[in-house]
Amino acid sequence: PAAIRTAGNGATAVIGGVSGGGVGGVMGVLGGLGPLGAAFAAVTAAAAAAGAALKGYADNVVEKGEAGINVSAKFGALDPANPQVGIEAEKRFRANANKRGDNADEAAPAYVKTLQGLTKAGFTLDQAENTLNGIMDKAKAEGLTNDDLKNSLRGLLQSANSGKLQGDEWNQITDNLGGAASIAAAAWNKVNGGKALTTDKQKTAAGAKFLKDRENGKVSGDQYKVFMIEFAARVAADARIGGVLDKQAGSHLSNANRLQNIKDEQSRNEYAQADSEVQKARSDLDAALIELQKAFEPLGKLFASGGAGMLDQLTTSANYLGELVQWAAEI
Known about the structure:
Mean pLDDT: 82
């Protein structure tokens, strides 16, 4: 019947109109204005897509490039008189991040900030790096998030700045590190020249002594440094028991992080090679997109008129569909 055909055409219009929402809907309005409108719509859509792609590329290169410069400057501050020290330290950090399967750019700010804090507290660069890597190995084995890791490093930095290990800082460092209490007790026992802990009674006593000494401020000065170095070495060894660290390093997430590290490095290299050209190009593109948006203003009435017509058509089509449903129900 004619009513069914009409309603069917209306349904097609409804589906087409809904699926063409957003930019597609606007392009549909332009297309309905005749050949000139359709041509304008095609050119506009292509220009918008190209502009978005270029801006996305430029934004990423500039973002990664600027962040990379900031991190490299902090590594360079480890020895301002010898920039090569910072360059090599950053290379080692990124190599270890890839080995573990960490997202290097996400971990870098907290890592280098803590590295600076440890060296200022009297750690040699090797000692500071080994301490950080030991804790990061354990964090990886435990499957910690980057936020959890940053929390641990924040506690380590605060303790290094104060030169002693206090309760809140210790909890921050070890909250998510399994077995940290017993490992710390054994490390503190060794630092103080104690014999190997072979019985449960000895281990319990060592744990009580560490807690008491920490509360009394004895884990401080040189003792603090020696303890943290020993503790980090022990948690790193613990992370490898049963191949747990290797399994985490071989996970899908770790491999995805390695792939992201490659992409991020490529973006930093592109930024460095282009010097300030990419940043200038992005600024120019931003300005051009702003002017393009302003140029659309005179078309506002045209869009409104065409949009109103499209809405009227959709309303009519919906009414036809309602009639079709009612007709079908009466059969």
